[in-house]
């Protein structure tokens, strides 16, 4: 006699997975409350029998209900008040050396080592809509479609050391404006630095193209102009003004630019306008090659590049005047 046995069909994998997760869920619902309760009442199981609840719902511990052989019953209840948590707000307020009752030497209201902040007022811009914005758009298109490609190609073709040498040459040639501006502000230390840089760089700096004064003697470049002279004597900047091709300026700094141009030796030496325009364009391309990435980052990180350039220019000029 032959008995045929038929194996029960194997349940699908997804059904087994659902059942396994169901078991885990039920087990978790049983384990989690127990573990949470044990976290508040740590100790042997017999301590649970000593817990009573008052009418207000407070937990009362009675050691008489514990078995006599339990070490929990032998412990006498502490009569001392609970210690203050050293990390609580009360303990911090009591022992805070920097609180309101602390001495002046620990006061954080005035930092003796903090640098004095310069309050910079916002530059007025009454010409924004009908003049500054259109000129800014013109300058921006000029930069993006002509100046930046030329300066970037120039940067890729000319080594940085040679571009720095050209910058040093222009800086040395235009020293009279910085010298006169320093003297008019009674900054004789800066005037001495200007003279020292010219003498050192023109004698030891390979035709004024190597900044030996800074590299060997630590005499840094002086950044002074006639616009700072006007600000030094209390003349306000006036409205914000964008100059075609030249960029951000103000009424005061526009007058200063004109005075600086008159003190530029190239203004009196260059024979014609075309040569002067070529030298100016070459200087602008060489300077722009150092700031292409900075201008890109400033424009990409600004909600309104026009306002960002205006604020940056205003802050920089006021800081230079205050130095």
Characterise this structure.
By secondary structure, the protein is mainly alpha-helical. It has a domain at 128-322. The protein is 57% helix and 4% strand. The chain contains 14 helices and 4 strands. It has a two-stranded antiparallel sheet with strand order 1-2. The chain has a two-stranded antiparallel ribbon with strand order 3-4. The longest helix is centred in the middle third of the chain and has 30 residues, at 128-157. Residues 1-8, 25-48 and 100-108 have low confidence and may be disordered.
Write down the Rg: 40 Å
- Percent helix range: 55-70%
Q: Could you tell me the number of beta strands?
A: 4
Coarse shape: globular
| Number of helical stretches of at least 4 residues | 14
Summed over residues and divided by their number, the pLDDT gives a mean of 78
- Run of helices and strands: HEEHHHHHHHHEEHHHHH
Q: Which runs of at least 5 residues are low in confidence (pLDDT < 50)?
A: 1-8, 25-48, 100-108
User: In what range is the share of β-strand residues?
Assistant: under 5%
* Major pleated sheet: 2 strands, antiparallel
Give the helix/strand class: mainly alpha
For the biggest β-sheet, the strand order reads: 1-2
Gap from first CA to last CA: 113 Å
Summary tags:
14 helices; mainly alpha; two-stranded antiparallel sheet; 57% helix; two-stranded antiparallel ribbon; globular; disordered N terminus; 4% strand; 323 residues
